[in-house]
Every structure is written in structure tokens, then in C-alpha cells.
Amino acid sequence: MHRICVIGGGHVGLVAAACFAQMGHSVICVDNDSAKIALLKKGKMPFYEPKLATLVKKTANSKRLVFSDSLDNSIKKSKVIFIAVGTPPKSDGSADLSAIEDVARVIAKNLNSYKLIVEKSTVPVQTGKKIKETIARYKKGDATYDVASNPEFLREGKAVHDSFYPDRIVLGVDSKQAETILRQIYSKLKTKIIVTDVNTAEIIKHASNSFLASKISFINAVSRVCDKAGADVEKVSQAMGLDKRIGGDFLSAGIGWGGFCFPKDVEAFAYISKKLGYDFSFLKEVTKINHEQQLYFTEKIRERLWVIRGKKIAILGLSFKPNTDDMRFAPSINIVKTLEKEGAELTLYDPKAMNEAKNIFKSKKIMFAKDAYAAVKGCDCVCFLTEWKQFLALDFKKIKKTMNNALIADGRNMLDPVKLIAAGFEYIGLGRGK
Ligand code: UDX
């Protein structure tokens, strides 16, 4: 059992804290947002993530997981400190590491005994080195410490599952003691452990996310060719994915990737590469294709409706992917804003992200519906922007009757065009022939 402090109660930190507690460790999850800590202490979740509420409740009841807004005390009481604070993008594409630097200084001030400081947030290569230097600069006394990198690969919406069943655990360490402690922390998980130096571990994370985003942009670029040639990208991706060297995951064409990780990580990886002396221009293209995919989708709608102004458009699905209420950098934002700018009357619905959406879209022209059926009533076009499972179970006969014009724009290629066309709908997909 280790005494662990997880700094940051967000999608990475809170999940890690609850999972470490479930693995038998004694964990303090600390966040400088007192309101969030107060909420967590009451057993309420600051965001939606399947299975997380139950796990937090269970581990908090057993007292293995506690919450605090006092960083100093939490650090003093712990031997292992995981840093899971935000590293948001700056306007130049680089990662804003000010929260990490702040934390490093607070750790230095509270270094009352040996501590292992572990980066969990995604950070550019050589951040570990900077953390080490910062602590050395500000620490008083002679307590020793190690800095390690243990990147998190969990996906939102599947975070708890991914934490207990990871494909691999990466330990970037520069001492045997750090490796031993981290191996002990994860001893209950059965998976491959890759041990590297800190720089390598940091690159593994950036390279993995950038590669996954590239895979999606690749198939999205293929979808554009499919549309021009009258071919079906769904079959192309199915057949490609059966080649074990390619693999079928992250090969679904659509309106592209979003979320708090891919957009910022692809940009930050390009930025740090350039800073180090390599122009990773490939990644610029990956981002460009992603952006263009959203423009292309709205262009397709415009093509069918001729004029967007005054048209009633229903948007089903707003979160950047299903099973989360997260709308950070969601493709839906660009699409909704473009349609709104062109004068569409929009009605939005998402099973979980309504509160987030209301904070983002303040225009009077944007309405929010209580369910999918209410959203599509009287509309000229319905757009599916997130592949929520419950949308597949909708009664499309009922939908068709209430729509003013039976046009479906499927931004995730989630529906069956053959069935919909047979039922009298016009259908727009991406890369499924014209
Ligand atoms: C990602 C990484 O997968 C995870 O390992 C890392 O820790 C954090 O970043 P996440 O941001 O939760 O996880 O989302 P992910 O499931 O990877 O999806 C990212 C985006 O890609 C979503 O917008 C999703 O809709 C899109 N996507 C995914 C596609 O457009 N096509 C696909 O085939 C797969």
C-alpha cells in the first residue's frame, strides 16, 4: 500500500485516484477548485463518466479515497505524487505548462521526506527534466526525490475500464527506486509494463495520440475520395481494418476528432518537434484534414438545402463522442456555429451534454430540446453529430412524419442509408458515395 496524492480532480486525476484507491492504496485527490472538492465530498460527480460515481462512492466510503483542497498538506502526507493538472493549448499551439510549474514549486516547498513525483498529464518531451530542475531550485532541506513519467491512455467514456485493463503501462523513470514504487502501485493489473527513460515515455504519449488522430484523418481523407468516386468508405475501412498490420480501430470516417486530448496533443507535438529542430509538417496536415471535414459536412447540407438561412435544422449529439458530457473541442461546435452564422434556426439535443451546450451556445437563435423527437419536429434537416447508441433506436417513421423535409445528415456514418432511403429520407453521409 502506498500513500498517494493525485493533484487534479479532472477526467484523468479523479479516475486515477479512484482506481488507485480500489487497488488498495491510500489516496488523497486534491484540487484547487474548492467547489469541485466540496461536490466530491458530498458524493457528487463534477462530470459524467460511466461507472465512476459508483467507484468513487465505494472507495470514499472505505476511506481509501479522500478529497482535499489543501495542496501543501496533501503533499506532506504522501510519498507518491501524481500530477494530473490541465495542460491546455496556448494560441501558438504549445502546451500551457504553468499549472505544472506551479505544482512543482509547491512540491518543492513541501518536500519533507523522499517523494516520487509522477507526471500523468500529457506533457511535451523534456517536461520531466524541467520539473526536476524546478524542484531542485526551490526546495529547502535535503529530502531526496525522483521525477517519473507515467502517461495515461484512458479514453473518456471508458475511463474506468481502461484504467483497470490498459493495453500497456508506460513507466518513464531514471532510478530503480522510482521503477520499484510504480511497479508496486500497479501490481494488481495484468498487462505489459514498458520501462523507459522519462523523455521516451513523454514522447510515447504524444506519438500515440498523434498517430490515432492521423489514422482518423487518413480515413476521412479517403472518405473524400470515396465521395468523388462513388465508392463506400465504410467497406474500405472494414477491409483495411482486417489487415492486422492496420487494425480496424480508429478507422471510422465522420466529422472528425475532438475532445481535450487529440486537438491539443497533435498541435503540441508539432510545436515541440519544431522547437527541437524537426518540422513535423505531417501533423499540420492531419489537423487541416480534420477541420476541413467539418466544413465539408456543412457544405453537403448547404448543397441539398440550397439556402441555409431560415431553415430549421435539428442537431442530435453534441459531445465530442458518446458516453461523455464533454464538449471541449467537439466537432459539433464548429458545425453548429457555421450553420448559425448562415442563419439556420437550430434546435439542439444531446443525452448528456445539454448543460455544457447551454454554456457554449448563447445565441437566441439556438434552442434546446428535451429529447430527440422534440428536436426534429418541423425541421428541414436533422444532423447526427455524435453516435449515441440511443439514436440508433429512434423510431424513424415517427421522425419522418414530424419533419418538414426528410433530410438526414449523418456526421458519423452511424445510420443505414439503404433503409433510410427506402423509408423516404434523403441521406447525406461522409464517403458513402454522393
Ligand atoms: C484519447 C485517446 O484515445 C486516449 O488514449 C488518451 O488518453 C486521451 O485521448 P479521448 O479523448 O477520450 O481519448 O477520445 P477517443 O475515444 O480517442 O476519441 C477521440 C475523437 O476521435 C472523438 O471525437 C471521436 O469521435 C473521434 N473518432 C474516434 C473518430 O472520428 N473516428 C474513430 O474511428 C475513432
Commentary on this structure:
The chain has 2 domains: 3-196, Rossmann fold (3-Layer(aba) Sandwich), CATH 3.40.50; 230-428, Rossmann fold, CATH 3.40.50. It has 434 residues and is an alpha/beta fold. It contains 18 helices and 14 strands. A 6-stranded parallel β-sheet has the order 3-2-1-4-5-6, sandwiched between helices. Strands 11-10-9-12-13-14 form a 6-stranded parallel β-sheet. Strands 7-8 form a two-stranded parallel sheet. The termini are far apart. It has helices at residues 13-22, 34-41, 52-61, 71-77, 98-109, 127-138, 159-164, 176-185, 198-229, 233-241, 262-276, 281-305, 331-341, 354-360, 372-376, 389-392, 396-402, 417-422, and strands at residues 3-7, 26-30, 65-68, 80-83, 115-119, 145-149, 168-172, 192-196, 312-316, 345-349, 366-368, 381-384, 407-410, 426-428. The protein is 45% helix and 14% strand. Bound molecules: uridine-5'-diphosphate-xylopyranose. Uridine-5'-diphosphate-xylopyranose (UDX) is lined by residues 152-156, 209, 212, 216, 250-252, 254, 256-259, 261-262, 320-321.
| SSE-based structural type | alpha/beta
Q: What Rg, in angstroms, do the CA atoms define? A: 23 Å
The number of domains is 2
Strand segment tally = 14
The CATH class of the largest domain turns out to be Alpha Beta
Q: Please state roughly what percent of the residues sit in beta strands, choosing from under 5%, 5-15%, 15-25%, 25-35%, 35-45% or over 45%.
A: 5-15%
